[in-house]
Amino acid sequence: MTKKEAIYYELLVLRCRQGRKGALEELVRNWEKRLFYYIHRLVDDEQDVWQILQETWVKVLGGIGKLREPRRLPAWLYSIARNTAISHLRRRYNREILLGQNEDICDVEDDKVDLSLEDAEQIHYGLGRLSLHHREVMTLFFLQDLRVEEIAEVLAIPSGTVRSRLYYAKRALKNILEEKE
Amino acid sequence: MREFDTTFRDRLLDIEKPDPVYWQEYERQVKAMIEKKLTGWTKLSHIIGLIMGLGFAGLFGTLAVIVPKEFPLWGRFSWMLGAVFGLVIACMSAWTLKKGTINLKDDEMASAGLGWAFIVIVGSIVLVFSGSLPDPITGIHMLVSLLFFLVMAAVFMIRAFIQRSELNTREKLLEIEYRLAELAEQVKSKQSQ
Fold this sequence. Notes:
The complex is a heterodimer of chains A (181) and B (193). Chain A has 181 residues and is mainly α. Chain A is built from eight helices and no strands. Chain B is mostly helical and 193 residues long. Chain B folds into two domains: 40-102; 103-193. Helix content of chain B is 86%, strand content 0%. Chain B is built from six helices and no strands. Classes of the chains: A mainly alpha (181), B mainly alpha (193).
């Protein structure tokens, strides 16, 4: 996050706290597409996705006054969206959601796997074929709002696990794309 | 991590084509959330405010007109102020009901100002009556009670003003910081060219 971005988030949060309609609109318009995309990678049914997004905004607009560090806005938004999606799925299907399952961790460099990012449609297709926890971490990676540490915070797992998960997810994505070709 | 530019993200996001029916319903709900539309209870409270405001205005206005000539001028003035206060409450409630939304920023300051105005009006009435009471002790009791409410209202109003000023100052500082960061970025990009 650049200094300018950090100041922008602080300014936006401050204006939202004052209940300014324009600031609230700006917050929603800037983030709804990204949150929609993220939630849709976790939940298949589009109607559910819209409902979760709506619930997310209720929580965000109600809780933005309590956000202690406005510079953490992106991670906070994704966390709320994720928790809302998980709660929704639990309520709807009455089952445990395996987003944070255990896995083998190894020390890896996440940029060791080369991925061609020319074709967004290919990536979108590939994301849909990844396992849920790989898809989630890759989606956050592609949305480019969070650093590894912040992704770890959103997913409530250690940073090392995020790096490892990213590595395996990239490898899996590369395989899917190669198979398709 | 960030080995690609944000246009990739935008292209990725553009692939998602939402159902227009769901989208419209979502838009409607979010708009209502942002505008803080009046719900059943808030609507009822504003209707009560409207009726009470009109009632106060009518009552105090009538009292100010019908009191005998011997009634102290200050007393008459207080009734008039009460009537004006009632009218202001009625107008504010009617206006909020008409627009159907609440504005947090303006409404907070308005409620602080109205609270202060109400205490001042009641205080004026108490001051007028406390001097003319046959028992001076009761008059003093009334004045002490008035002082308590006056201090409470003043604290409430000053706190609202301080909070507002702090937020405004912080906002101005952040705007300056943002502008400086923007300029720094421009200078940096020019230097790299």
